[in-house]
Amino acid sequence: ALPASVRIVEVGPRDGLQNEPDPITTATKLELVERLAKAGHRHIEAASFVSPKWVPQMADHREVMTALMREGKGQPGVRYSALTPNLKGLEAAIECGVDEVAVFGAASESFSQKNINCSIAESLERFAPVVERARDQGIQVRGYVSCVLGCPYEGEIAPEQVAAVARALDEMGCYEVSLGDTIGTGTPINARRMLEAVARDVPVERLAAHFHDTYGQALANLAAVLEDGIQVIDSSVAGLGGCPYAKGASGNVATEDVVYLLEGLGIETTVDLERIAAVGDWITRAIGRPNRSKAGVAVVAK
Ligand code: HMG
Ligand code: MG
C-alpha cells in the first residue's frame, strides 16, 4: 500500500552544489535555501562540514549554517541539516548552532576509502562518538549509506552488506538511515530486493530513499520502494548535483519530478510544484547549469 504522505528532504544546497567546480557565493546558497523553504520544504540539507581541500565548494559551511541558525536567515519550522563526518566537523557545526547533522558511510570498502579516507569499520568507529556527542547536545543525527545499488569501483554490492551498515548506523542512534544509490545504476527489482534486506534489520519507517538519476531510473525505483513502505525521499531541485568521488554520477532525482509523481499517486507533500519549479528555473540560470527536471521544465514553460 502507498503512504498517505511523504516527507521530502531537499539536498540540493549540499549534494546538488558540492561538485560544482566554480565557486558559488554564500549569498546565492542562502538565497537558494530561502527559496526552497518558501516552496514548502521543511527539511533542507544546507551544508557540509568536510575538509575544504576535499570539497572546496562546501568551504563556507560555517557562514551558511551560522546565517541560518543564528542570524535569522532560517525560517521557523524548517530543519536545516549538515554533513559531519567526524568530531572536528561536528564541533564546528555545534558552534554554528545546528540542530541536525548527518554522518555518511558506505556499503562498499573502495568507496569508503575514496570518499572519507577510511574503511567501513573505521568509519563506524569514527561515527560512534560523533553520534554520541551530537545526541548529548540534543542534535538529531541522520545516517547515510552510499553505494546501496552499486559502486563505481566494485560494481554490484550485496544487499546484506547494505543491511549491515544500515543496521550499525541505526543501532548507533541515527534516527533515520538514508539509502544512497550514489551512481544511479539501480533498477526497480534490485531496489526492492535491497530494501527488503535492509528492512529486516531496520524498520522501514526509519529508512529513506536517496536515489541519483544517472541512468534515468530514479523515479521508477522510487515508485517501487514506495510500495514497500518508504515514506521519506531525498531529492535535489532541478536534479542538480553529483558526488566528487563517483565519476560520471549525475544529480539526485529532481524534487520537481518527485513532487509531480507523488501528486499523481495521491500522496501528500509540503512542497508546492509551481513554486519548486520556479526555484529550479532560477538556480539553474544563476549557476549556468541545465535544468535536469523534466516536470520542472514543463511547468515553467506552461
Ligand atoms: P582525512 O584526510 O582522512 O582526515 O579526511 P584527517 O583527520 O587526517 O585530516 C586531514 C585534514 O583535513 C586536516 O587539515 C584536517 O584539519 C582537515 P590539514 O591539517 O591537512 O590542513 N579536516 C577537516 N577540515 C574541515 N572539516 C572537517 C575536517 N576533518 C578533517 N570535518 C575527511 C577525512 C572525512 C575529512 C575527508 O575525507 C573529507 O572531507 N572527505 C569529503 C567527503 C565528502 O564530502 N564527500 C561528498 C559527500 S558524501 C555524498 O555525496 C554521498 C551522499 O550524498 C549519499 C549518496 O549519494 O550515496 C551522502
Ligand atoms: Mg548523494
From TrEMBL:
Entries under SUPFAM superfamilies matching the protein: Aldolase (SSF51569)
UniProt keyword list: Lyase, Metal-binding
Signal peptide stretch: none
EC number in record: 4.1.3.4
Involved pathway(s): Metabolic intermediate metabolism; (S)-3-hydroxy-3-methylglutaryl-CoA degradation; acetoacetate from (S)-3-hydroxy-3-methylglutaryl-CoA: step 1/1
Organism: Halomonas litopenaei
Pyruvate carboxyltransferase domain boundaries: 6-277
Stated name of the protein: hydroxymethylglutaryl-CoA lyase
InterPro entries named in the record: Aldolase_TIM, HMG_CoA_lyase_AS, HMGL, PYR_CT
Domain of life: Bacteria
Catalysed reactions, semicolon-separated: (3S)-3-hydroxy-3-methylglutaryl-CoA = acetoacetate + acetyl-CoA
Family: Belongs to the HMG-CoA lyase family.
Gene Ontology molecular function, alphabetical: hydroxymethylglutaryl-CoA lyase activity
